[in-house]
Amino acid sequence: MYLGQANQDRFVLNVLKEKKNGYFLEIGSNHPININNSYLLETNYEWKGIMVEFCPHFLPLYIEHRPNSIHVINDATIIDYKNLFETNNMPLSFDYLQIDLEVSNESTLNTLKKLDTDVLDTYKFATVTFEHDIYVGDCYNTRLSSRDIFKRRGYVCVFEDISNDGCPYEDWYVHPDLVDMNYVNNLIEINRTNYVDNPLTGKSISWKNIQYE
Q: Are 150 and 173 in contact (CB under 8 A)?
C-alpha cells in the first residue's frame, strides 16, 4: 500500500491520523509514483501540494499522474518560497515537508537554510522527513546543522538516523503545535528498543522495524 522508500507516507498518515485534504511541500520529487512519498497522499487522501524537482524530464509524468499538484521545475536552492506559497494560496500550516536532495553538492542543507530564511518564521509543517545521507559521508555537516535548524524552529525529532540495511540517512520530525504530542511521545517510547548500534551514528533504527500503535 505505502509507496515511500522507507514508508514515509505511512509515518505521515499515522501521525496525522489518516488526514484527508492535507497540504504538502515535496522537495526532490523524482518519479511521481515509484518510491514517491506524496503520491498516496494525493491520490487516496485528496491532498494537494507543491512538487519541486530539478530534472525537467519528469514534468510530463507529473502532468499525467499528479494533476492536483503544482509542479515546479527549478533548483530548490534558489526558489522564492514565500512568493511560491502566497501565489498558490498555501495555508500557513502545511501537513508534510519532504527534503530529499543531494548532500554532496550542499543542495540539501542550502534548501533548508533557504526555507529557514524565507518562510519558517510564518509557515509550519506538521510532519517532516529530511534526508541527510550521513552514510555517504559527513557532507557540509548536513546532519547536525539540519538538526540545529529544526530544533531552533521548535520541531521535535521523532526518529533519527533511520536506516536501510544499516545505512542511516534520514530524520523524521513533527511540529508540536500541529500534532497530537501524546501520541507522538508514545510512538517515540515504544520504538526506543528498536534502535541498534551503528558505527556511523552510534544508534540507528531501520524503517522496517518502526512500530505504530
A: yes
Closest CA to 134 of 97, 162, 172, 173: 162
On whether residue 2 sits in a domain, the answer given is: no
List all residues 6 or more positions away from 15 whose beta carbon is below 8 Å from its beta carbon.
Answer: 126, 127, 158, 174, 179, 180, 183, 184, 187
Residue type, 176: P
Question: In Å, how far are 10, 90, 118, 124, 154 from 86, measured between CA atoms?
Answer: 29, 6, 12, 14, 23
> Can you tell me the distance from the alpha carbon of 19 to that of 108, in angstroms, rounded to the nearest whole number?
28
Q: Residue 122 contacts by C-beta under 8 Å, 6 or more apart in sequence?
A: 82, 92
Q: What φ, ψ does residue 187 adopt, rounded to 5°?
A: -60, -40
Domain count, the chain: 1
| pLDDT tens figures, 17-76 | 999 999 999 999 999 999 999 999 999 999 999 999 999 999 999 999 999 999 999 999
Residue closest to 198 by CA, chosen among 172, 174, 163, 171: 163
- Is 131 inside a domain boundary? yes
State the amino acid at position 112 in one-letter form: L
CATH number at residue 186: 3.40.50.150
pLDDT single digits (tens) 70-121: 999 999 999 999 999 999 999 999 999 999 999 999 999 999 999 999 999 9
Q: 37: closest CA among 192, 213, 207?
A: 207
